[in-house]
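Justification of resources, computational component.

The compute hours requested in this renewal are based largely on the per-chain cost of generating structure records like the one below. Each record pairs the submitted sequence with a full structure-token output. That output is archived, and it is also reused by downstream analysis tasks.
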Amino acid sequence: MTGKKLYLGTNVTYFRKLHKLTSTDLATMIRITPAKLSLIETSLTTDIDYYLIETLADYFGCTTEGLVRSDLTNNSVTGDAQDGNNTFH
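The structure output for this chain reads:
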């Protein structure tokens, strides 16, 4: 995995803000502390289990692979997703 840019933190921050969630709100929903979420969003931790990544991907309506390895901040989002229905393209 060395040399490959990972986008988990960037994407989580993007989707959290898109859904108008505070970090405390999202952390509570996915059952982690706000401090842990902050470490994820700022890419200061690699101690993230797959289940957590899967939970985030399911909530935000994307794949785990996309959430980790792709910059999803430039993807188009349908009106449904902006209304909270999690439809991303």
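Residues 77-89 have pLDDT under 50 and may be disordered. The chain is about 55% helix and 0% strand.
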